[in-house]
Amino acid sequence: MPQEYYGFSFRNNARSNNATVALNNAADISVIVIYFVVVLAVGVWAMVRTNRSTVGGFFLAGRSMVWWPIGASLFASNIGSGHFVGIAGTAAAAGIAIGGFEWNALIVVVILGWVFVPIYIKAGVVTMPEYLKKRFGGQRIRIYLSVLSLFLYVFTKISADMFSGAIFINQALGLNIYLAVIMLLLITALYTVTGGLAAVIYTDTLQTIIMIVGSFILMGFAFNEVGGYESFQERYMEAIPSITAGISPSCYEPRADSFHIFRDAITGDLPWPGLVFGLTIQATWYWCTDQVIVQRCLSAKSLSHVKAGCILCGYLKLLPMFLMVFPGMISRILYPDVVACVDPEECQKYCEASVGCSNIAYPKLVVDLMPNGRWLETFVAQEQKAEASPK
Question: In the 8-state DSSP scheme, what is residue 219?
Answer without folding.
Answer: H
